[in-house]
């Protein structure tokens, strides 16, 4: 179904987020799927891999995540610029057709009852580590990564290949108000 | 002393980190200054601005930060690639000459008893919001941003200008093992 989807060793899953991309957060609960954009997502630990994500209490995604205890963090691409902006600016609370209008197509993976977004470069399936104080005081959620995958056209052998892949695969880095930067040139410190 | 250093409105301070750069963390306590690199730093709130940063318990920076309750998060540039790699790979515990060897030059700002790193593109002075459980369980530290500045050659009017500034000003985004990407092309979602 997805010939380029390749598993990523959990010990290297942090590399999918280490360069600070804006992400998509997807959730499923009680028959409802949703996807939102989030710039405030960050690796937290290597092994087992953990991450943080900030989810405003007004979001439907947060309600679903608190209901199911599971979510997907995925890395959208330059080709998904409009999709990313749309799912970040519209709420499922206001528009039940949000995902279709933004052009989101979902797919399933075995053993994970979660909605994965087609066309992303990487996916991290997470289980919520409940920290009620962080969630209430800071809107801060901690997830343990229990599965990781990438599109082998842009990430393989534990490394991103932005410098050789089609530029449409580059990650998005939101600043504010729909202004993004794509990731750029590769550099190696001596 | 620093003719291009311009204050950043605290309401827009999150924009200095929103695109996910690798940062430098600097601290001062009991007469000791230190600087380390950290890829796991993320905005947490808009007003008052807050951020998170992950600091391994083996680091001298963490000891100093826990001592003083204050730190600076700053955004290094492509011109500081070697410096960033060096302060990330060497500990003051092993080498008292670490900062000099890495080429770090520090400067002071009025009313902030903190060491600021010359040549960065942005600086956020932070006060620790003590959260002992997060610090012990996750190495996760929360700071409230109490002052923000940027070099007006690359950030002004509340916006980054990577697309028009000299490429040496671009932010660094670490993946692993000294492999970085610079931030790249500007994109605007319609």
Q: How far apart, in Å, are the first and last alpha carbons of chain A?
A: 41 Å
Task: Determine the CATH superfamily of chain A.
Answer: Electron Transport, Fmn-binding Protein, Chain A
Strand proportion of chain A, as a percent range, falls in 35-45%
Biggest interface and its residues per chain?
A: A-B, 54 and 54 residues
How many structural domains can be distinguished in the coordinates of chain A? 1
- Continuous helix count of chain A: 4
**Structural class of the helices, strands and pairings of chain A?**
alpha+beta
Number of strands of chain A: 14
Q: How many whole angstroms does the radius of gyration of chain A measure?
A: 16 Å
Helix content of chain A: 10-25%
State the assembly state of the protein chains. homodimer
Spell the H/E element sequence of chain A.
Answer: EEEEEHEHHEEEHEEEEE
Mean pLDDT value of chain A:
97
Under the CATH scheme, which class of chain A?
Answer: Mainly Beta
For this structure, the CATH topology of chain A is: Pnp Oxidase, Chain A
Please tell me what the overall shape of chain A is: globular
Family (chains A, B): Belongs to the flavoredoxin family.
Keywords (chains A, B): Flavoprotein
GO molecular function (chains A, B): FMN binding; oxidoreductase activity, acting on the CH-NH group of donors, NAD or NADP as acceptor
Domain Flavin reductase like (chains A, B): 15-162
């Amino acid at each position: 179904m997805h010939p380029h989807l390749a598993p990523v060793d959990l010990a290297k899953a942090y590399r999918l987020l280490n360069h600070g991309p804006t992400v998509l957060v997807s959730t499923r609960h009680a028959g409802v799927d949703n996807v939102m954009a989030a710039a405030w997502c960050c690796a937290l630990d290597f092994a087992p891999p953990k991450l943080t994500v900030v989810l405003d209490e007004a979001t439907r995604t947060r309600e679903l995540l608190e209901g199911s205890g599971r979510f997907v963090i995925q890395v959208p691409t330059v080709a998904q610029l409009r999709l990313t902006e749309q799912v970040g600016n519209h709420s499922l609370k206001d528009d039940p057709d949000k995902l279709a209008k933004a052009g989101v197509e979902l797919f399933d993976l075995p053993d994970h009852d979660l909605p994965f977004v087609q066309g992303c470069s990487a996916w991290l399936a997470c289980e919520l580590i409940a920290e009620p104080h962080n969630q209430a005081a800071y809107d801060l959620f901690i997830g343990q990564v229990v599965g990781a995958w990438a599109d082998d056209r842009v990430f393989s052998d534990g490394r991103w290949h932005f410098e050789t892949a089609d530029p449409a695969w580059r990650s998005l880095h939101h600043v504010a108000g729909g202004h993004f930067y794509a990731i750029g040139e590769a550099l190696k410190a001596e």
